[in-house]
Amino acid sequence: MKTIKYSRQRESIKACLAGRVDHPTADVIYADIRRQFPHVSLGTVYRNLNLLAELGEIQKLSCGDGKDHFDWNTSPHYHFVCKRCGSVLDLPLKPLEGLEAKAREALEGEVHSHMVFFYGACQKCLEQDGDEILSKRC
Predict the structure, then answer these.
(1) Distance (Å, rounded) from C-alpha 15 to C-alpha 13?
(2) Are 80 and 89 in contact (CB under 8 A)?
(3) Least buried of 96, 105, 118, 138, by fewest C-beta within 10 Å?
(4) How high is the pLDDT of residue 95?
(5) Contact at 8 Å (CB) between 59 and 77?
């Protein structure tokens, strides 16, 4: 394994991501990092996020919205994606035991890992819909 040179910007990106419960895009992380490093480029943020994902220090999530989202939590867990507002949330559900074994049984090949996304509408969007319905009635 090659040695990676220390970078204050990379450490700042990791700290930013570790302090969040959402799953931000590179653009959101870039906006946060610019407060501490005003001259950092978006390309630097992208390169460091991709490097951290390759090293297994963070997760890179492709949720179907055309943007990569990033997650500090690298332990096995599932995600929920709101199709209305685009938020990506950790789903408080234990990973199903034996799922990878079942996939291996069904596949001629190797299964190394898996990622599961659930899609729907988050509570905030549902409440907003309820508020809109109430305001239309009045």
Answers:
(1) 5
(2) yes
(3) 138
(4) 86
(5) no
CA 130, CA 110: separation in Å to the nearest integer? 46
Q: What is the pLDDT of residue 131?
A: 59
Query: What predicted TM-score, i.e. pTM, was given to this entire model?
Result: 0.82
Averaged pLDDT of the chain: 89
SS3 track for the chain: CCCCCCCHHHHHHHHHHHCCCCCCEHHHHHHHHHHHCCCCCHHHHHHHHHHHHHCCCCEEEECCCCCEEEECCCCCCEEEEECCCCCEEEECCCCCCCHHHHHHHHCCCCCCCCCCEEEECCHHHHHHHHHHHHHHHC
Below-50 pLDDT ranges, the chain: 134-135, 137-138
